[in-house]
Amino acid sequence: MAKKKKKSALTTRALELEDAMVRLFTGKGPAKKKKRRKAKKGAKSAVKAVVKKVKKSAKKAVKKAKKATKKRRKAKKK
Predict the structure, then answer these.
(1) Gap between the Cα atoms of 38 and 55, Å rounded
(2) Quick one: DSSP state of residue 78?
(3) Does residue 78 form part of some domain?
(4) Other CB atoms closer than 10 Å to residue 19's CB: what's the count?
(5) Residue 63 falls within a domain, yes or no?
(6) Rounded to an integer, what distance in angstroms lies between the CA atom of residue 67 and that of residue 78?
């Protein structure tokens, strides 16, 4: 599938004006505006999953560090 080349803003506007003139003289109604494409939902959920994993691993690291310091303090007391 070949990628479509994006038109410049000026070209797009010129085409819109040309279309508007044609519609004005032919008596057709206004053209429908193109809807903006929405981002895929899959990407969002994938990002959320990664964030969740990172947070979980960070919590694990903190727990491990606390455990180690606790162990060291206990050993120091003896």
Answers:
(1) 28
(2) -
(3) yes
(4) 13
(5) yes
(6) 17
68 found inside a domain: yes
Evaluate whether residue 34 is within a structural domain: no
pTM, two decimals, is 0.37
Give the CA distances from residue 61 to residues 54, 67, 72, in Å, rounded to whole numbers and listed in that order: 11, 10, 17
Q: Both tokens of residue 70?
A: 């606790």
- Which domain, by its residues, includes 69? 41-78
- Total structural domains within the chain: 1
Residue 5, both tokens:
């080349």
Span 18-75, pLDDT tens digits: 888 888 888 777 667 777 776 666 667 778 888 889 999 999 999 999 888 888 888 8
The owner of tokens 């929405």 is 38
Which helix (H) or strand (E) segment holds residue 13: the answer is helix 9-26
